[in-house]
Design brief:
The complex is a heterodimer of chains A (279) and B (378).
Chain A (H helix, E strand, L loop, with lengths): L1 H10 L16 H14 L7 E5 L7 H4 L3 E4 L5 H11 L4 E7 H7 L1 H10 L4 E6 L2 E2 L5 E2 L23 H8 L3 E6 L3 H13 L4 E6 L3 H7 L5 H10 L1 E3 H6 L2 H4 L3 E8 L5 H14 L5
Parallel strand pairs in A: 1-2, 1-3, 3-4, 4-8, 7-8, 9-10
Antiparallel strand pairs in A: 5-6, 7-10
Helix pairs in contact in A: 1-2, 2-8, 5-6, 6-7
Chain B lengths: L3 E6 H11 L2 E6 L6 H10 L6 E4 L3 H13 L3 E6 L1 H17 L3 E7 L16 H6 L8 E4 L3 H18 L2 E7 H5 L1 E6 L43 E3 L13 H16 L2 H4 L2 E4 L6 E5 L2 H15 L4 E6 L1 E3 L3 H10 L2 E6 L5 H9 L4 E6 L8 H12 L1
Parallel strand pairs in B: 2-3, 2-4, 4-5, 5-7, 6-7, 11-12, 11-14, 14-15
Antiparallel strand pairs in B: 1-8, 6-13, 10-12
The chains are: A alpha/beta (279), B alpha/beta (378).
Chain lengths: 279, 378
């Protein structure tokens, strides 16, 4: 434990912006820990990592870590990250977003980033709620749950983040919870390493907003739920669909080799220069 | 490469100006009447090793441009009214985080979808105040194809020098018309690059005040690790809610533009020395106005022209000086009166401000301006 703490401290801007703003029991810190372990395991230097975020609780993550960090506008993190990556392809550009950030206001950018297959790693922390503004329902709030803007229960249906990413064409899609932290470390590492658009959906408890409004118990209870209601991709393959009802499938959902945007663009540059069609 | 003569559209000249100024990244979304800029960028940028990307919308386009600029590239986008509206939030981000970038808005008529293929000058105030919150901004205009080239170069140079978004306002006439333009030898184009840190990374304070008010800017990935945010931040770039940090930050943001006004403002005068009626115009209307001044002179009216090339910050010194001497300041505009409000504010009763407004999608003709001059002078 001491070693892990020491490792994390190596990457934090501990002399600058602490304490952090996250509530007790929030899963964001666990995701940050996983991200740091993945970067450390890959042997990346702090200079070559860019961490980009949007708006919301997850949006504050970059401020705490000693990378090149960018806190953008709501929903637009992937578009900012696209600009950075295309100009400096040697950098590892990691984008962290919340469910509302990535799927509601940023939904269009999310599907097009997956389709375009720019070499980015996107981590989406899914806590089923807008936490920072006080508990409004998001595109991933399940049907029938409560939120401050759904006081009589939510009548909309949940968008499945990982499945959407797979359909939109992402090269790598994984899902974990913050309870399954070793899996999370591994998925983040693989998403960063993967050439192309890599997505990791992380189920994360928000006991203060979502949990309280829906009487789901404290952070420990909510993480116990994650432990008891998940099933690995491998095991899920062996079970009939009726036994998967209500279970969350975790692990690597998609991994495929697709042409990445930067490499395709390099071919365009070669062609344009070869044609001799100058000014 | 020597200079070459070309017959180009205003929109095409923007692209050549941008490349001459060092632009190597363009992200955009198709929209009339600006689309030729994206099309020519898609063709030209790969030839010079630059990056063109067509994004999913204007929100993403300006965001990618800001990201590219943070990574060290000179970057721009182009759009028209509806897309310009969508870009406003992130234009504010670029002001706040002090990220150089250029946005070209080829204005169309009307609010909403409006008149996509007809000229207007309706976005003058949107360019100034479109993004929320109090902020400084630099807005330029052009009235000919050669000016499209040179004002794009200028837009990049000012943007880099002052680390601020610069907006170039064109109208449909200037964007689509073809004229002869002399493209200079690239080495004859004065190019300004953003100030870079000269100190080692451990001494770098990304948002520290400097004599010019512009802090040096380190591109991502070169050892200067720092935080960039759209939140009000302290000198290290970290969010702050301390009044003693917010105040100086906002003050510096405005000061870097206002203190450098002598270098930012640009206008041209024609026959103003003895003018009794001075026409104040910009964009395609300045062309009609110049012709109107000549025709008026032939009829014995002492007319002159002040052509605005920098719209914001506003050309206060020249307007004040001309208002002292002239009987009438005539402001023809293809809107209901946007620059004329500013002229009235500066005029302070010195002269008489007369407006000529047209919003039917057609040009203001020289004849209409002459007629208004005669009417105003009685």
């Amino acid at each position: 434990m001491r070693e892990i703490t020491r490792l994390i401290h190596k990457y934090l801007r501990h002399d600058k912006k602490f304490p952090h703003i996250w509530c007790p029991g929030c899963g964001n810190g666990i995701v940050l820990g996983s991200l740091i372990r993945a970067v450390d395991k890959m042997g990346l230097s702090k200079d070559e990592v860019v961490l980009v975020s949007g708006i919301g609780c997850s949006g504050r993550m970059p401020v705490y870590v000693d990378f090149n960090t960018l806190h953008t506008t709501h929903g637009r993190a992937l578009a900012f990250a696209t600009g950075i990556k295309l100009v400096k392809p040697q950098l590892k550009v990691i984008v962290v977003m919340g469910d509302g950030d990535a799927l509601a206001i940023g939904g269009n950018h999310f599907i097009h980033a997956a389709r375009r297959n720019v070499d980015l790693a996107a981590i989406i922390i899914n806590n089923h709620i807008y936490g920072m503004t006080g508990g409004q329902f998001s595109p991933t709030t399940p049907y029938g749950m409560r939120a401050t803007t759904a006081p009589y229960r939510n009548i909309e249906h949940e968008l499945k983040i990982a499945e959407l990413a797979a359909t939109a064409g992402a090269a790598f899609v994984g899902r974990s919870t913050v309870y399954h932290v070793k899996l999370l470390d591994n998925l983040i590492e693989r998403a960063i390493e993967k050439k192309g658009f890599g997505v990791v959906e992380v189920m994360s408890p928000c006991p203060v907003q979502y949990g309280r409004l829906n009487r789901l118990g404290d952070a420990v209870k909510m993480m116990e739920w994650q432990r008891d209601n998940t099933i690995s991709v491998e095991k899920a393959k062996e079970l009939p669909p009726e036994e998967l009802e209500g279970k969350l499938v975790i692990g690597v959902l998609v991994e495929r080799d697709l042409p990445i945007y930067q490499e395709e663009y390099e071919k365009i540059v070669e062609r344009a220069r070869g044609s001799g069609a100058a000014l | 490469m020597a200079k070459v003569e070309k017959l180009l559209q205003g929109n095409e000249a923007v692209v050549e100006g941008a490349i001459a100024a060092g632009c190597r990244f363009y992200a955009g979304y198709p929209i009339t009447p600006s689309t030729e800029i994206a099309e020519r960028m898609a063709w030209r940028l790969p030839q010079v090793g630059g990056i063109f990307i067509q994004m999913e919308d204007e929100l993403a386009s300006i965001a990618a441009v800001i990201g590219a600029s943070l990574a060290g590239a000179k970057a721009m986008t182009a759009t028209s009214g509806p897309g310009f509206s969508l870009m406003q939030e992130n234009i504010g981000f670029a002001c706040e985080a002090e990220v150089p970038c250029v946005v070209v808005d080829v204005m169309r008529g009307g609010p909403s979808t409006g008149l996509p293929t007809m000229p207007s000058q309706g976005d003058v105030m949107q360019a100034r105040w479109g993004t929320h919150g109090d902020h400084p901004v630099i807005v330029l205009s052009a009235s000919s194809v050669p000016e499209c080239f040179w004002m794009t170069v200028r837009a990049f140079n000012l943007s880099e020098k002052y680390r601020t978004p610069v907006i170039l306002l064109l109208d449909e006439v200037v964007g689509h018309m073809r004229e002869k333009v002399v493209l200079p030898d690239p080495k004859d184009v004065e190019v300004v690059d953003r100030p870079r840190p000269t100190m080692p990374p451990e001494w770098y304070i990304p948002y520290a005040d400097t004599p010019s008010g512009v802090p040096p800017m380190a591109p991502f990935g070169e050892g200067y690790r720092y935080h960039v945010t759209g939140l009000i931040h302290d000198v290290r770039g970290f969010p702050t809610s301390r009044p003693d940090e917010i105040g100086p930050f906002m003050e510096r943001l405005f000061r870097k533009i206002s203190a450098n006004f002598p270098e930012i403002h640009l206008s041209e005068e024609f026959e103003t020395s003895d003018a009794e009626v001075v026409v104040i115009a910009y964009g395609c209307v300045a062309r009609s106005a110049k012709r109107a001044v000549k025709e008026a002179r032939e009829r014995g009216i002492k007319a002159g022209l002040l052509k605005l090339l920098t719209l914001w910050p506003f050309e206060r010194p020249a307007v004040e000086r001309l208002a002292e001497k002239a009987k009438v300041l005539l402001v023809p505009e293809m809107n209901m009166g946007q620059i004329s409000r500013e002229v009235k504010r500066v005029n302070q009763g010195r002269s008489r401000v007369v407006t000529l407004n047209k919003v039917d999608g057609t040009l203001i003709t020289p004849g209409e301006i002459v007629e208004k001059m005669e009417e105003a002078l009685g």
